Amino acid sequence: MENYVEKVYAVTRRIPRGRVTTYGAIADYLALGSARMVGWALYQSIGVANVPAHRVVNRRGELTGRLHFPTPTMMQQLLESEGVRVTNNRVVDFERHFWHPAQAEE
DNA sequence: AAGGTGACAGGGT
DNA sequence: TACCCTGCCACCT
Questions:
Q1: Residue by residue, what is the 3-state secondary structure of A25-87?
Q2: Residue A51, CA: closest nucleotide via C1'?
Q3: How far apart are CA A105 and CA A93, in angstroms?
Q4: What is chain A's pLDDT, residue by residue, as a tens digit (106 residues)?
Q5: Residue A46 CA to B9 C1' — how many Å?
Q6: pLDDT score at A32
Q7: Which nucleotide is closest, CA of A63 to its C1'?
Q8: Domains of chain A as residue ranges with CATH
């Protein structure tokens, strides 16, 4: 791995379809920097292929990064297309969809 | 060089 | 759950 950003991309790509995780979980798993750094790294991911940034939300399950997508509704739309319901910019049953990088992927 | 900013989190109230 | 405050750390003026 070259840098912090690449590591964040790698972890983000491992998030299973239909699942979500948090900035803090990624930062914790990488044991590097803080959650803010993860947010910054994902901001860099705009335009990078195969980085499902829409599966990363904040600790409350809110789609705080939606305004950074090409369109403000894309993030929610992508999640719903994977079976994750979103209401008022928040993931419904967030805890049920939560996935931690440390747990085995399915 | 110093201070402001931000796709955040955790703890207290 | 929500709101507020503080810690966080790379980047950009």
A1: HHHHHHCCCCHHHHHHHHHHCCCCCCCCHHHEECCCCECCCHHHCCCCCHHHHHHHHCCCCEE
A2: B7
A3: 20
A4: 458 889 999 999 999 999 999 999 999 999 877 999 999 999 999 888 899 999 999 999 999 999 999 999 999 999 999 999 999 999 999 999 999 999 876 6
A5: 23
A6: 79
A7: B7
A8: 4-97 (1.10.10.10)
Q: Which residues contact A7 (CB under 8 A, 6 or more apart)?
A: A1, A30, A32
User: How far apart are alpha carbons A45 and A99 in whole angstroms?
Assistant: 20
The distance (Å) linking the CA of A34 with the C1' of C6 is: 14
Distance of C1' in C10 from CA in A55, Å: 23
Whole-number Å distance, CA A42 to C1' B3? 25
| CA–CA gap between residue A99 and residue A22 (Å, rounded) | 8
Question: On chain B, which bases lie within 7 A of the protein's CB atoms?
Answer: 6-10
What's the pLDDT at A106?
A: 61
